[in-house]
């Protein structure tokens, strides 16, 4: 799935991933390929990503929102 992580200043990630772990306001959750469409609020925490070659990446955010639709995830983060 395509993941974009965007802050008010810049795009901090744009690429294909297998898995996204997120700090949701009601608890942590994971997104895999072909996930159902959702919009969810995120709290301060760490986004963990596994890319297509199984490299793990981490991004610290101060909160935000994620939208997933048609195997594309967009995170608007603080």
Give the key terms.
78 residues; mainly beta; ATP Synthase, domain 1; 8-stranded mixed β-sheet; 71% strand; globular
What features would you describe in this structure?
- The chain has 78 residues and is mostly beta strands.
- The protein has one domain (2-77): ATP Synthase, domain 1.
- Helices cover 0% and strands 71% of the residues.
- It has no helices and eight strands.
- Strands 1, 2, 3, 4, 5, 6, 7 and 8 form an eight-stranded mixed β-sheet that branches.
- A hairpin with a 4-residue loop joins strand 1 (2-6) and strand 2 (11-24).
- 19% of the residues are buried.
- The model has no long low-confidence stretch (mean pLDDT 96).
Give a quick summary of the entry:
The chain has 78 residues and is mainly β. It has strands spanning 2-6, 11-24, 27-32, 38-42, 45-51, 56-61, 64-69, 72-77. Strands 1, 2, 3, 4, 5, 6, 7 and 8 form an 8-stranded mixed beta sheet that branches.
